[in-house]
Amino acid sequence: MNDIQHFPLKVAGSIKPSDSKHEITSPYTGQVIGTADKANEHDIEEALATADALYRDRSNWLPTSQRIAILERAITLMEEQFDELARNSANEGGKPLIDSKVEMARCIDSIRICVDELRTQTCKPVPMGINGASEHRMTMLKKEPIGVVVAVSAFNHPLNLIAHQIGPAIATGCPVIIKPAEDTALSCFRLVDIFHQAGLPETWCQAVLTENHQVAEQLVTDPRVSFFSFIGSARVGWYLRSKLSPGTRCALEHGGVAPVIVTEDANLETAIPALSKGAFYHAGQVCVSVQRVFVHESIAREVADKLSKAAKNLVVGDPLSDQTEVGPLIRASELERVSSWVQEAVDMGAELSFGGYSLPNNCYVPTVLFNPSMESKVSTSEIFGPVVCIYPYSDVDQAIEQANSLDVSFQASVYSQNIDSAMYISARLAASAVMVNEHTAFRVDWMPFAGLKSSGLGTGGVPYTMEDMQIEKMIVITSKGIQ
């Protein structure tokens, strides 16, 4: 783990000299754990030209059978390197090893879903022969790759997010260029190398860090890009969408300020551990992390106390330890921001039930706030840290109104033992998915995953991304022999 691995700039299938180098550091120790060369505007032009030429040369498209074989070999290589990939990911991203192993398993499963989709996807023909104009005709539909895919990824799931973005591109036959988050670029480069080792020509999947934002924007907004996949902040995502070339399709996945409603009859024995996991998993650095919990006033104090006790019992520290449950925030500036937001909430009247202070190595104590002001940042914006807020309510419709009051909408949840209450609340929460008696961060990789309003555009999830990266070409056959 002490070896510093360097990833040279590999564009268009060959190593290119670079004057710009990026250091990747452990968020826990601050030590440099890897380096990578950065691409300039000329490198990006070469990457785009290569990808575009591959797509235009239809005679050399990768057949489905070859793509399946590559993905299956990649799965085998990932399984063989499972522990090393998980440990390296925990080291660079700060997600505890126990959770990084779960993510690695999901990463492999995401690629397996790509294979399953290729084996089973089909097209429904368009009916003909139903009027005079359509007589003696039949249709057939086939799926084709949409074109060059450019993907920009986030730091918080450096294995599985990459699988969700480049796995479907490889599966559907799209040349792909991926720009990982600078904080966790090593995991991306390692996965891309695995795909190349599995037989994917290097030109079909290029991975780059860019020298600056202008070069990144050049990559994303080029007219040769057919599909843009983005996972990251709403500010950056919506800005880049506004700059896309005409015809470039996109999917954006941003964050939320996930609401939970807990009714007076909720089973707290199951709710508290789930809410604790949903709030403090990966130090709250999850786009659907539990953040706002609206609890009936009859049990609100009890929920705050029990959630505080659960927070107190969590092991915070070194992500490489098998005992750690909450690791560091990704960088010192994020630690400072989270701390300032909590202090603001307290200054505005919130009761600090537990936590509210920093630890060494960019760690922050899992924190529970009771009844913060609706005007404080912890109530209006995604904190992306290990902080959860409890709001007592007396009228469930008012709680639902508060839950729906923000310009973000992603996943939400409700805890109730009463099916009528659970369904009533589920129907009225503004969300793309509502979990009943489960925390807001629940996800499996074949389900739809969609941010609404400011939270995103389009639908994630491996099958849905594959659908986005393909077009259905219709062929109409005319013959007097067709009845």
Topology:
Elements: E1 5-7, E2 9-11, E3 14-16, E4 21-25, E5 32-39, H1 41-56, H2 64-80, H3 82-93, H4 97-120, E6 137-145, E7 148-152, H5 160-172, E8 176-179, H6 185-197, E9 205-207, E10 209-210, H7 213-221, E11 225-231, H8 234-243, E12 249-253, E13 259-262, H9 268-280, E14 292-296, H10 300-312, H11 332-347, E15 351-354, E16 358-359, E17 363-364, E18 367-370, H12 377-380, E19 387-393, H13 396-403, E20 408-409, E21 411-415, H14 419-428, E22 433-436, E23 452-453, E24 456-457, H15 462-468, E25 470-478
Parallel strand pairs: 1-5, 5-10, 7-8, 7-11, 8-9, 11-12, 13-14, 13-21, 14-19, 18-19, 21-22
Antiparallel strand pairs: 2-3, 4-5, 6-25, 12-24, 15-18, 16-17, 20-23
Structural descriptors:
single chain; 483 residues; alpha/beta; Aldehyde Dehydrogenase, Chain A, domain 1; 2 domains; 7-stranded mixed beta sheet; 6-stranded mixed beta sheet; 25 strands; 23% strand; globular
Describe the structure in your own words.
There is one protein chain. With 483 residues, the chain is α/β, with parallel strands linked by helices. Helix 1 runs parallel beside helix 7 and helix 9 (268-280) crosses helix 10. The mean pLDDT is 97. It starts with a strand and ends in a 5-residue tail after the last strand. The chain is built from 15 helices and 25 strands. The strands form 7 sheets. It has a 7-stranded mixed sheet, with helices on both faces. Helices cover 38% and strands 23% of the residues. The protein has 2 domains: 5-254 and 455-474, 3-Layer(aba) Sandwich (Aldehyde Dehydrogenase, Chain A, domain 1), CATH 3.40.605; 259-436, Aldehyde Dehydrogenase, Chain A, domain 2. The chain has helices spanning 41-56, 64-80, 82-93, 97-120, 160-172, 185-197, 213-221, 234-243, 268-280, 300-312, 332-347, 377-380, 396-403, 419-428, 462-468, and strands at residues 5-7, 9-11, 14-16, 21-25, 32-39, 137-145, 148-152, 176-179, 205-207, 209-210, 225-231, 249-253, 259-262, 292-296, 351-354, 358-359, 363-364, 367-370, 387-393, 408-409, 411-415, 433-436, 452-453, 456-457, 470-478.
